[in-house]
């Protein structure tokens, strides 16, 4: 098959995949009454009305929800980097009883649907009085519950020469100092990959914040968008698209800046 036909086929496929995104971007700048009546991607009139109205649609600036999402996202990143790296180092380097069993349980938890844990976790945090706070969203991150990142870091640490650990032990360093000064600096590709995935997944997470956050002032961006859908009629579609477009900007900017680190981290982690 000629390369020109392959490229043409890929362009058609790409256009098909990004059409919904293009339609959302165009609809964000359309007058509300034209969004559903004129569904094409070529607008006849452009306006910023949707952004002006959507910014204060929930009786507070939408920037407050961006701040909430940013706090949860940063806390989740710190938690995953701290707990998953320590757990991975222990499973990859330290010798203790049932280490293989613990690692197997960690891997098995990846295949366990999160929805199985929702009810017991909610009851637990409710009894602690932590509902309507960000603690139920952050505490699991500091307990290495994201087994995917633990597995990612374990695989990366196993590629590092053990001679580095032995040299540190000869110099009198214990397990933690060896981890902190020798292993952790060399884990940068895996740490960057964890940071990128945690940022994207946490920023876009809708289900967990919806369960624990019921106060409007505590909403994250996805929950705020959902409330906008529930509280508005057809005239609120334009505001929804406008705020959805703004909510995508941090993801697009972050991914554009960190893309090369993501590819490098995944490629390096897969080497043996």
UniProtKB/TrEMBL annotation:
Top-level taxonomic group: Bacteria
Subcellular location: Cell membrane
Keyword check for Ribonucleoprotein: no
Membrane spanning residue stretches: 7-29, 65-89, 101-125, 137-157, 178-203, 237-258
Keyword check for Lipid metabolism: no
One Pfam match: BPD_transp_1
Cited Gene3D superfamilies: MetI-like
Main location: membrane
Span of domain ABC transmembrane type-1: 66-258
Keyword field: Cell membrane, Membrane, Transmembrane, Transmembrane helix, Transport
Membrane topology, record value: Multi-pass membrane protein
Family the UniProt entry places it in: Belongs to the binding-protein-dependent transport system permease family.
Name by which UniProt lists this protein: Carbohydrate ABC transporter permease
């Amino acid at each position: 098959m000629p390369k020109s036909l392959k490229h043409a086929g890929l362009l058609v496929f790409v256009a098909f995949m990004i059409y919904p995104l293009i339609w959302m971007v165009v609809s964000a700048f359309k007058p509300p009454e034209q969004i559903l009546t004129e569904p094409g991607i070529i607008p006849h009139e452009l306006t910023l009305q949707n952004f002006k109205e959507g910014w204060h649609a929930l009786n507070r600036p939408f920037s407050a929800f961006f701040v909430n999402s940013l706090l949860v996202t940063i806390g989740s990143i710190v938690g995953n980097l701290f707990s998953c790296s320590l757990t991975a180092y222990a499973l990859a380097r330290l010798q203790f009883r049932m280490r293989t069993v613990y690692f197997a349980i960690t891997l098995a938890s990846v295949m366990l649907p999160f929805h199985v844990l929702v009810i017991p976790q909610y009851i637990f945090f409710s009894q602690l009085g932590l509902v309507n706070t960000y603690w139920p969203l952050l505490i699991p991150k500091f307990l290495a519950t994201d087994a995917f990142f633990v597995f990612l870091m374990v695989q990366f640490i196993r590629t590092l020469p053990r001679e580095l650990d032995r040299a540190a032990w000869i110099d009198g360093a214990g397990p933690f100092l060896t981890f902190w000064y020798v292993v952790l600096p060399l884990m940068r590709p895996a740490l960057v990959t964890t940071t990128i995935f945690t940022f994207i997944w946490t920023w876009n997470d809708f289900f967990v914040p919806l369960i624990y956050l019921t106060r409007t002032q505590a909403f994250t961006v996805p929950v705020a968008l959902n409330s906008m859908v529930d509280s508005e009629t057809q005239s609120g579609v334009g505001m929804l698209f406008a705020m959805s477009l703004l909510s995508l900007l941090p993801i697009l900017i972050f991914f554009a800046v960190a893309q090369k680190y993501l590819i490098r981290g995944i490629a390096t982690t897969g080497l043996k």
